[in-house]
Amino acid sequence: MPATFINGAGIAGDIKKEVASEVAGLKQKGVQPGLTVILVGDDAASSAYVNMKARTCEQLGIRSRKIVIPGPVTTAELLARIRSVNEDDSVDGILIQLPLPKQIDKHAVLESVLPSKDVDGFHSSNLGSLLLGHESLVACTPAGVMELLKRSGVQTEGANAVVLGRSDDVGKPQAVLLMHANATVTICHSKTRHLADITRQADILVAAIGRTAMITANHVKPGAVVIDVGTNQVSDRAEIERLFGKDSVRWKDFEKRGYIWVGDVHEREVREVASMMTPVPGGVGPMTIAVLMRNTIKAARMRRGL
């Protein structure tokens, strides 16, 4: 029996409703949460993401501000702009839209955001608090994955979980969150030997390595839950044919855009083995923005001791 798709968009919608209700409650106390997004350069995809976040803020009653810094900019100039936002008490959350231009010191920029306003959960202080199990702002994508598992009734306690990918923003915090949920966690990466032998032991497999359809049926234990964090753009017709055959929905998307989004999981193969899995798009992606909104509310509460 084919795997059931986990409805990330539906679960994200539930979280947004919860956030909207919290915002309404905070407004009754005279508090309107505010999120500021800083966009450096003119990358079209980044601009689209920022606009999507602004629209979501507006829908939920969160004050939204976008700071666009066009043209060449130095790390020092960007740090000065961030300092001014840090000092603005009307701002509860600060998000630096990634990727940054190559000349910018990404680490210095992310570390310059006040931990109390770091709604992306990338500051070393927040990552350290996560590791120690303290209350903190947690990176949106891995936190979203945990919500998907929880709200889909997936048992994490005692489960063997494999995280494929060791990035600072997804893989590492994902492994820690699963460990805190009492799973037994293994981290794999591009240098892992005998990868399929390890991933086939997983009751829960989180793929976040950034390689198109890398995870095939051979990598998956029968009945496993597979979470696909990958977002890879595919525009080659032969590759789409290989991955999705005559799937009319995929081809319709391709004809409309000239490309489709594909995860790190070979969906057509893995669906015949797994019990549950997230689609791409419509799985983890919507959760990231929903958790960003929730983190903004959390930051507003924590900053005011509410």
For the record, the count of structural domains works out to 2
Q: Order of helices and strands, N to C? A: EHEHEHEHHHEHEHEEEHHEHEH
- The CATH topology of the largest domain corresponds to Rossmann fold
Biggest sheet features: 6 strands, parallel
CATH level-four homologous superfamily name of the largest domain: NAD(P)-binding Rossmann-like Domain
Number of helices: 12
- N- to C-terminal separation? 47 Å
Q: Which regions have little confidence, pLDDT < 50, spanning 5+ residues? A: none
Number of strands: 11
Q: How confident overall, as mean pLDDT?
A: 96
The percent range for helix content is 40-55%
Structural class: alpha/beta
Rg from Cα: 20 Å
Q: What percent of residues are in strands?
A: 15-25%
Morphology: globular
**Major sheet strand order:** 1-11-8-7-5-6
* Name given to the CATH architecture of the largest domain: 3-Layer(aba) Sandwich
Give the class-level CATH name of the largest domain: Alpha Beta
Chain-wise SSE layout:
Elements: E1 4-5, H1 8-28, E2 34-40, H2 44-60, E3 63-69, H3 75-86, E4 93-96, H4 106-112, H5 124-132, H6 140-151, E5 160-164, H7 171-180, E6 184-188, H8 195-199, E7 204-207, E8 225-228, E9 232-234, H9 237-244, H10 248-257, E10 260-262, H11 267-270, E11 276-277, H12 284-304
Parallel strand pairs: 1-11, 2-3, 2-4, 5-6, 5-7, 7-8, 8-11
Antiparallel strand pairs: 9-10
